[in-house]
Write a structure and sequence with these properties.
- The protein is mainly β.
- It has 3 domains: about 120 residues, Sandwich (Jelly Rolls), CATH 2.60.120; about 110 residues, Jelly Rolls (Sandwich), CATH 2.60.120.380; about 240 residues, no CATH class.
- Helices cover about 10% and strands about 30% of the residues.
- It is built from 6 helices and 29 strands.
- The strands form 6 sheets. The chain has an 8-stranded mixed sheet, with no helix packed on it.
- A hairpin with a 6-residue loop joins strand 25 and strand 26.
- Helix 1 crosses helix 4.
C-alpha cells in the first residue's frame, strides 16, 4: 500500500545507469523520485520490555531500564540517497541528555536528526536523513538509534521512563547512482532492507571467519504472510557476488516462513544478496551472526519420565525448539542448540538412560521447581514447566501471561547448562524480599518479568528497576549472581556477556545493547521450513 508524501525533495536527478554483474537480471532498480514502504514493523519494545509488565499489559511503547542504547541499520540500493522514518507513536524525555532518537549515515558521529529538548515528554512525527556526497542507502547505509537513560532524580521503580518509538512507514528518495559497495554487516547487527519493486537487489558482505568459526544469516519478511513463490529470496556466495546462476546458498521466502542459512567454511568473506521481483516494494529484516564451531550443541539426550501422548510429545518438542531460538537470540547467534534426542517413558538415568547414552535433561510430572544442578549440570524440568508443555498450546508455551511460559524457563535453564551463566536474581530464602531481580536485560533474570531477551552487557548490567531501587546502588558483589548481607541486595560484578565472551569469535562483547531478539515472533520455530535448523527434536 502506498501513501502520499507531503512534498518532494528538489534537485534529485534520476540516472538510468546500472552496475555490471555476471547475471544481468541481478540489478538495482532505479527509484523514480521516491518509494514508500508501508508497513515497516520496527518497535523499540523488540529490544527491552517493561521491567514490571508483560507484552500484553502495556501499549506499544513501554518503560525502559537505564542505559538502553539500541540501533538498527536501514539499507536500500545505491539509488537510495535520502530517507524518511515516520512514527505512529514516539516519545522521548526532554531535558535528559541520555534520551534521544537519532538517524544518521552509518559511521557518522553526528546524526542528522536528534530529538531532545527542555522539560517534558515530546511526541516525534518523523526523522529525516538528507543526502550527503556519494552516500547511498547501501553504502554506507543509514543508522537509526534509540537511547534512554534514567530520568533526572530517578529514585524508585515508578520513575522508570515510559518512552520509546513505533515506526509506521519509511520512504526512500532516489537520485543519481551512489556508492555501490556491498554493505559490511558485522556480527551483533540487525538491518532493515528496503527492496524496491520489480527486480531489485541489495548486497551485503560478512566478515571473514577463522577455520574454527562459521556464520549464520537470518531473514524475515515484513509482513511475513503470502509472498509469491520464488519472487523474494536470499543468495550467498563465498568470495564473490552471487547471482541467478552462481551461488553457494539460496533460499526463497514462503508464506509465514523466514529464512535461516548456515554458512559453512569460506576462505574469505561471504557475500549475501537479497533480491525481489515482486511488483510492490518489499521489506526484509536481517541479522548476521558468527559462532565458534565448538558452541554448536547437537544430540543432547532428554528423558521424558512418563508415557507422553502424541500431542504431549508435540508440545515438548515445540517448547525446546522455542527455547533454542531464545538462546540463539540472547547470545546473538553465538550459541546454537541444534537438535535434541527425546526418549519417551524414560527412567531419566544419568549414566544409562536415554537409549543407553545417559540423560542430560529430565522432563517429569513430579512437583518441583525446574533447575540445573550446580554439581553435575543435570537439568530437571518439573511440573512448573511440564504441565504447560503437555497442553501443546504454543501460545501458553511461549508465555503471554504475567508468569511467562515454559519456553522462557527452559531457555533460562539452558543458560545455566550450556552457557555456564549464573542467576541474576535472589533465590528463595536468600533475602527478605524473595525473587527481587538484580539485573535487567538478561536471560538469567527472574522468570515472571518477561524480560529475558538478551544477556547483560557491561553497559547495562545492574540496570534493573528493582536493582536501582534498593540501596546501595553500586552493587559489585558476586560472583554467584546474588548475595544478602544485612538486608542489602547485591548483583553479580560481571555482566553475562563478559562471562560468555570467551566463547565467542574474537572474545567479542557488544559495544552497545544487544538486539535481544527472540526469533519466535518472526516464526523461526516453523517446522515446515527446511532451512530452519535450530532446536530440532525427535523422539527415539
Amino acid at each position: 500500500m502506498r501513501a502520499c508524501m507531503l512534498y518532494l525533495v528538489p534537485g534529485l536527478i534520476l540516472s538510468t545507469a546500472t552496475p555490471s554483474r555476471a547475471d544481468p537480471s541481478f540489478t538495482y532498480a532505479p527509484i523514480s523520485t521516491y518509494t514508500v514502504f508501508n508497513p515497516v514493523s520496527l518497535d523499540s519494545n523488540e529490544w527491552v520490555r517493561d521491567q514490571n509488565f508483560t507484552e500484553s499489559d502495556q501499549p506499544p511503547r513501554q518503560q525502559y531500564a537505564p542505559n538502553l542504547n539500541q540501533h538498527v541499520r536501514i539499507l536500500s540500493n545505491p539509488y537510495g540517497r535520502e530517507l524518511w522514518v515516520i512514527y505512529s507513536d514516539a516519545f522521548v524525555k526532554e531535558g535528559d541528555p541520555a534520551d534521544a532518537i537519532e538517524l544518521g549515515w552509518q559511521g557518522a558521529l553526528l546524526p542528522s536528526s536528534i530529538i531532545s529538548g527542555v522539560t517534558a515528554p515530546r511526541p516525534i512525527a518523523a526523522s529525516v536523513l538528507g543526502s550527503s556526497g556519494s552516500n547511498s542507502l547501501m553504502s554506507p547505509g543509514a543508522l537509526h538509534r534509540f537511547r534512554s537513560g534514567p530520568a533526572p532524580g530517578w529514585a524508585n521503580p515508578g520513575d522508570s521512563e515510559d518512552y520509546g518509538f513505533t515506526v509506521s512507514w519509511m520512504a526512500v528518495f532516489g537520485g543519481a547512482f551512489g556508492s555501490a559497495s556491498a554493505h559490511f554487516l558485522p556480527p551483533y547487527e540487525r538491518a532493515v532492507i528496503l527492496l524496491n519493486a520489480n527486480d531489485d537487489i541489495v548486497d551485503l558482505v560478512l566478515p571473514p571467519r577463522a577455520s574454527n568459526q562459521a556464520s549464520t544469516f537470518a531473514a524475515w519478511l515484513n509482513p511475513p504472510a503470502n509472498p509469491t513463490a520464488n519472487r523474494t529470496g536470499v543468495w550467498a556466495r563465498c568470495n564473490a557476488y552471487p547471482d541467478g546462476s552462481n551461488w553457494d546458498r539460496r533460499a526463497y521466502f514462503s508464506s509465514n516462513v523466514p529464512i535461516f542459512l548456515e554458512l559453512g567454511a569460506c576462505s574469505g568473506s561471504w557475500f549475501v544478496t537479497l533480491g525481489t521481483t515482486e511488483p510492490d516494494p518489499v521489506v526484509v529484516h536481517v541479522t548476521g551472526a558468527a559462532h565458534n564451531l565448538n558452541r554448536v550443541i547437537s544430540g543432547q539426550r532428554i528423558g521424558v519420565k512418563f508415557n507422553a501422548t502424541a500431542s504431549e510429545r508435540a508440545g515438548i518438542l515445540y517448547g525446546f525448539q522455542s527455547a533454542a531460538w531464545r538462546v540463539y537470540g540472547a547470545s546473538m547467534g553465538t550459541s546454537l542448540l541444534k537438535d535434541f534426542r527425546f526418549y519417551n517413558n524414560s527412567n531419566c538415568g544419568k549414566l544409562f538412560g536415554c537409549g543407553g547414552g545417559g540423560c542430560g535433561v529430565c522432563v517429569t510430572t513430579e512437583n518441583g521447581t525446574s533447575n540445573v544442578s550446580s554439581f553435575d549440570g543435570y537439568m530437571t524440568l518439573y511440573n512448573d514447566v511440564t504441565d504447560v508443555l503437555r497442553t501443546n498450546n504454543r501460545t501458553m508455551i511461549d508465555g503471554t501471561t504475567f508468569s511467562g511460559g515454559p519456553a522462557e524457563i527452559i531457555a533460562h535453564e539452558a543458560g545455566h547448562k550450556w552457557l555456564g551463566l549464573p542467576d541474576e536474581y535472589q533465590v528463595e530464602g536468600s533475602c527478605p524480599n524473595v525473587g527481587v531481580g538484580l539485573c535487567g536485560h538478561s536471560l538469567m533474570e527472574v522468570m515472571w518479568r518477561n524480560n529475558q531477551r538478551g544477556l547483560c552487557t557491561d553497559a547495562n548490567h545492574r540496570g534493573h528497576v528493582d536493582d536501582m531501587y534498593f540501596l546501595p546502588t553500586n552493587r559489585v558483589d558476586g560472583p554467584d549472581g546474588w548475595d544478602c548481607v544485612d538486608n542489602r541486595r547485591w548483583a553479580d560484578a560481571q555482566s553475562s556477556w563478559s562471562r560468555w565472551s570467551s566463547n565467542t569469535p574474537g572474545n567479542a562483547v557488544p559495544a552497545s545493547g544487544a538486539q535481544n531478539l527472540l526469533y519466535v515472533p518472526q516464526m523461526f520455530t516453523s517446522v515446515s521450513s527446511s532451512v530452519t535448523t535450530i532446536g530440532r527434536g525427535a523422539f527415539y
